[in-house]
């Protein structure tokens, strides 16, 4: 499922507020509290795949040993809560969406806090972190190179950043872009998509060494089958009276909110087509902050 395109990069904050006020409960009802994908190794169950995916992410970030942890675009807070369960350190989850944070705050732990904050202004946080998770949400950012620079500023030397994001495949031609990617981006409020190669360039420019990177398309295909089935289920079940009940009531959306919900169904078709055609790449990056000057370029390292 997906979200509307911003006309200018500077109004994305307002668009994100409206979008998730409209569709957050829809996603949670037909997907779950984790708005990201599960990684499958074989024929394991949906629940097992999510549990193993999260265990992989926690190990990659060294959460058990981390003292100060940040989740960017934490959404409804489920993964922040899981990190807080897994460490004696402190966890801060930030999101731009008031509607999402209203759900996140149901998780109550002494080492867990949620706060409204824009990732594009994340260097304004008066703190630094030794582990940062950013899963399935960087695609919304209007200026990704700037965001990487600011995230790097708040990551301690030796600290780890886990970035899992939707990337545009290398070599997508204008016809493919117009027919498949452009419509999906319109519904998802995405102004631009980066390639994995561009992300790697931004990492090198900001002293973020690549510990591991992987194209996860093959291992996440089952999510698309599940998501498509859930979209069909929603079409069968939802009636006109159901749609207003899905809206976050503290933000006045009216008919615009109903339209945003309806837009998710054609988006589900376009994004599945983009995945099946290989135009979208679901990419995993595990990064570590170098000890040197932020302006010094560090070559990528993979294992």
Helix and strand string, N-terminal first?
Answer: HHEHEHEEHEHHEHHHE
Structural class: alpha/beta
Residue share in helices? 40-55%
User: What is the CATH homologous superfamily assignment?
Assistant: Vaccinia Virus protein VP39
Shape: globular
Compute the number of structural domains.
1
**CATH fold label:** Rossmann fold
Q: Could you explain the architecture of this structure?
A:
The chain is of the alpha/beta class. It has a single domain, classed as Rossmann fold (3-Layer(aba) Sandwich), CATH 3.40.50.150. The chain is 43% helix and 18% strand. It is built from 10 helices and 7 strands. It has helices at 12-30, 46-61, 78-85, 98-104, 144-153, 174-187, 196-205, 217-237, 242-245, 255-276, and strands at residues 68-72, 90-95, 112-116, 129-135, 155-168, 208-215, 280-289. Strands 3-2-1-4-5-7-6 form a 7-stranded mixed β-sheet, sandwiched between helices. α5 links the parallel β4 and β5. α1 (12-30) crosses α10 (255-276), α5 (144-153) runs parallel beside α7 (196-205) and α8 (217-237) packs antiparallel against α10 (255-276). It is globular and about 55 Å long. The model is unreliable at 1-9 and 293-303 (pLDDT under 50).
